[in-house]
Structure formats: C-alpha cells, structure tokens
C-alpha cells in the first residue's frame, strides 16, 4: 500500500473516532512538530556533538562488536 492510499484510509478512519482519541492524536501531532533538540541540556547537546565528531572521524564501533561485548547479558 502506497503512502497516498494509507493517508486516504487514515483520513476515512478519522471520521469515526471519538473525541478522546481525537485529542490524543492532536497532542501527538503537536509533539511531533516540537523541536526536541532545543529542549536538551547543554551537556546533552555537547555529548551529541562529540558523537557526531567521532562518527565524522570514523571513530565507530560496529554493532556486532558491541553485541559480542554484551552477549553474556543478551
């Protein structure tokens, strides 16, 4: 099913929802438009920037290496 069809189906379903669900959906839409980055602390932003810098410098650890390290808990 393509995106246009999914949207059309969703719009049709919206005509049948109750007010409580509509309010929840409205909150979800508003929250999805919110800029979450601006709400982070300076330390959180700094840690993200460090991570981006490490990725840019190819200082990465593969998923499989991480999973091997922690496999005793998984």
From TrEMBL:
Protein name: Uncharacterized protein
Top-level taxon in the UniProt lineage: Bacteria
UniProt organism field: Flavobacterium laiguense
């Amino acid at each position: 099913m393509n995106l246009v069809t999914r949207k059309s189906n969703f719009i049709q379903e919206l005509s049948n929802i109750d007010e409580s669900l509509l309010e929840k959906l409205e909150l979800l839409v508003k929250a999805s438009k919110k800029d979450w980055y601006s709400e982070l602390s300076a330390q959180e932003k700094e840690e993200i920037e460090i991570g981006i810098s490490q990725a840019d410098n190819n200082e990465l650890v593969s998923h499989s290496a991480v999973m091997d390290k922690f496999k005793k808990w998984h």
